[in-house]
Amino acid sequence: MTKIELLKEFASGWFGNSQQHSIHAQLLANRGYKKLADMIMEESNEELDEAKKVNARLIELGETPVVSTTSYPVITDIKEMLEYDFKDSMEALPMMSKSLALFDDDYVSRHMIEQFILDEQEHLNWVKTHLNLIKEIGYENYLIEMLG
Ligand SMILES: [Fe+2]
Predict the structure, then answer these.
(1) Is the CB of residue 96 less than 8 Å from the CB of residue 120?
(2) I need a surface site. Which of 28, 30, 45, 124 has the fewest CB within 10 A?
(3) Domain that holds residue 115
(4) Whether 86 contacts 124, CB under 8 Å
(5) Does residue 148 have a pLDDT over 90?
(6) What is the CA(104)–ligand 1 centre distance, in A?
(7) Which tens digits make up the pLDDT trace of 8-51?
(8) What's this model's pTM, rounded to 2 decimal places?
């Protein structure tokens, strides 16, 4: 895979993931979990921003971005939603780190992806904390906390 192909794949992945988070946040808000909905909508906005940054970089590199959105499942169960995010981040992080090798000759793209890796790690920490809370205080108590 070339670095351009990879950048296009990243953009498509983040557009898709951002949409998934946004739908999850809307579903949660509709059910009254305002606090959790706000946190997940924030993640959605961050990923949309990342997708746009990748497209901006593609344009800087003389490429034309494409309209593409990787498909993600919509999950209604809150615990399953968090578990999906955990699994997704755990898989994405090593893949993103490995991809840096393709950008040895392109410090700007490399730096951008390094920032994305830091954000993804932060999100993974957030998900871990929430899964731990469920374990420690119990699912029902967790859900009450997330009503906000
Ligand atoms: Fe995500």
Answers:
(1) yes
(2) 30
(3) 3-65+73-145
(4) yes
(5) no
(6) 26
(7) 999 999 999 999 999 999 999 999 999 999 999 999 999 999 99
(8) 0.94
Residues with Cβ–ion distance below 5 A, ligand 1: 17
**Ligand 1 centroid distance, CA of 13 (Å):** 9
The CATH number of residue 9's host domain is 1.20.1260.10
- Which residue pairs from 22-31 have beta carbons closer than 8 angstroms and sit at least 24 positions apart in sequence? 22/48, 23/74, 24/74, 24/75, 24/81, 27/74, 27/76, 28/78, 28/146
Q: How many domains does the chain have?
A: 1
Per-residue pLDDT, 118: 97
69-88: per-residue pLDDT in tens?
A: 999 999 999 999 999 999 99
Strand blocks (E) in 43-148: none
How does DSSP classify residue 32? T
CA–centroid distance, residue 140 to ligand 1 (Å): 24
| Ligand 1 centre distance from Cα of residue 91 (Å) | 11
What percentage of the chain reaches a pLDDT higher than 70? 100
Rounded to whole angstroms, the maximal C-alpha distance in the chain is 52
Separation of CA 85 and ligand 1 centre (Å)? 6
Residue the block writes with tokens 């992080």 = 93
